């Protein structure tokens, strides 16, 4: 069952690559060490055969760097090392070797916007020493209407969701009719006697990207990992490095207030979203040159001839993503979050427009498209909808050209685990633990094979409703077997995206979407809860065999006309045409 694409002889490694996101804290712990319940790098190594048989071409590993891990490791205290809990640099080396021996590649997470407040850089900066005083975003306060010192502007912290609960419980008093305030993005530091900016929690201070020394330091981190053999980076929260800020010669900070967002619904939305983000994040005048700088490292003579790639994490409007996708098409792109963000039941004409436009614009930029169905920040797809829809969305997404990102456990049809005891809640935003519970590997082993530690010591509890990989592995009808078929088909499809229009027999045409891969394949998805019979497709494609379905086992010997095909509710299929 080894069918990773290098072995299939494809040209550009990343085109058609299936990239698997490992969340190291809950992926797997190797048996060689004292069991802590927190995962390990050798634990990842142990599962490479499994990943290879799943058709995975590359891994992206979420941060495994030294960290207090108050934000699952996205609070880094040393960007160039391995946290003891996961092992050491020799384990990292073994992992790189294990991957490269299998013709698989490795992307690591780069967190350029912030560090942990325990990082020596921040310690030096707050103590105004070692030339690091301007490495973070410091500002004096202003005096507010009551004569009190207040933050210099209204910028908020992304993790303001807990404010809703605080208001509800009476811990946060807000006058009736007033909006629930976001948590301020500024925290007063007693040592420096200034405010520091943090786009996320107060223990994640924002680096000052306006300072060229900071940019040089991050580029040096990139080189360190490239020298250790990594093949690329997933760049965390990248819009936040680009802010509309300036400093006077005397060090006075300037950063304009954000405007209010008229679409914000108080009591439901994250209070952070009541402000638009024009200055505090995604400010093109700053962001764009910084993106260029980061990408330029991959082009340096030492690395330029390697098959490296950057994927930027940016939840941003389309026109700004377009810019990112055009910056360096051979090297970098932004995540395409449409499969995560677009509701399954959204109007299909809108979904189709988004899809066709996305593929057209990425192709015209000469870039590689991609799809993301889930990650460690979002509710798992099978929980958001249903198992059936999860399978259908997987087919619809994976068969599109370009890279596919699979979040660990998606291939097992895993669900969110909502019954996490209060004392085990880890996420500072109070939301993302359910999709981060440990992987179930072996039904007969302690903690389903994740770790030999006591259940109470696991980072997060096991989800007892999961079906473990070992059981799924031998069951041809399982999620895992289905995913193996999907990745095999993905690697087989090398022709470009073709926009197609479809008519259904009920004449409404509003529930079914089709696209082609060249002239050879047609991928069709029924986004409705009703069966749909196809009437016509344009440009015309008449006869074909159904070779793959999200619902049925296929007898692919039957050739049929498109207008005799009926899709089951929420079904996706692939039709292969004879050329
Ligand atoms: C990104 C990560 C998320 C993290 C945040 C702050 O959005 O995906 O997990 O909390 O950045 O680093």
Structure notes:
There is one protein chain. By secondary structure, the protein is α/β, with parallel strands linked by helices. Helices cover 24% and strands 16% of the residues. The chain is built from 14 helices and 24 strands. The protein is globular, with a radius of gyration of 24 Å. Bound molecules: alpha-D-glucopyranose. Residues 71-72, 74, 111, 200, 236-237, 313, 376-377 line the site of alpha-D-glucopyranose (GLC).
Short description:
With 579 residues, the chain is an alpha/beta fold. Helix content is 24%, strand content 16%. An 8-stranded parallel sheet has the order 13-12-9-3-2-1-15-14. Strands 16-18-19-24-21-22 form a 6-stranded antiparallel sheet, covered by helices on one side. The protein has a 3-stranded antiparallel sheet with strand order 4-8-7, with no helix packed on it.
Beta-strand residue percentage? 15-25%
Share of helical residues:
10-25%
Number of helices: 14
Number of strands: 24
Spatially, the strands of the biggest sheet line up as 13-12-9-3-2-1-15-14
Largest sheet: 8 strands, parallel
Bound compounds, each kind once, are: alpha-D-glucopyranose
C-alpha end-to-end distance: 27 Å
Low-confidence region ranges: 1-11
Tertiary shape? globular
Class by SSE composition: alpha/beta
Mean model confidence by pLDDT: 94
Q: Compute the gyration radius: what is it?
A: 24 Å
